[in-house]
Amino acid sequence: MYSPQLPLARTRVASPWETEKPQPEPGGLEASLLQLMHDHHHKSLRLRELTEKAKKDAIKKAVRVSDLLMDAVNGGVQESFINEKRIELEIRALAATISRFMRQTDQWLTATHAINTAIKEIGDFENWMKTMEFDCKSINAAIRNIHQ
């Protein structure tokens, strides 16, 4: 297993030119070079700090953009899901309505068939009555002819 690593301390390590050496004479070439190195070192540190700060800021902004994009995409997906559920509910309602209309149509067809059958029977009965009336008249006429 790994042992937990302690955070690194930021301490300033003395450079070789900062150890106990005799101080260069002010305004000399060595002092100017030391001043240039010292200024360069401080500018490097400042630039490194600014770079780290800019990096952290860029990461924060990238995370924010990613979150906004994810919310935008998820919002569309969520809206599509809600619409899909609404459509499914409408489909179920329409299927129930269609089933009800089919039963009603079947009932109407049965009723019209019964009416048609009754009308046919009435027509048959009327035709039978006319036939019977004609037969009765024929018999009546035959009896009158025989009686005379």
TrEMBL record:
This is Biogenesis of lysosome-related organelles complex 1 subunit 1. Pfam families: GCN5L1 (PF06320). InterPro entries: BLOC1S1 (IPR009395). It comes from the Eukaryota. Transmembrane segments: none annotated. One of its GO terms (cellular component) is BLOC-1 complex. One of its GO terms (biological process) is endosomal transport. Belongs to the BLOC1S1 family. PANTHER family: BIOGENESIS OF LYSOSOME-RELATED ORGANELLES COMPLEX 1 SUBUNIT 1, BLOC-1 COMPLEX SUBUNIT 1.
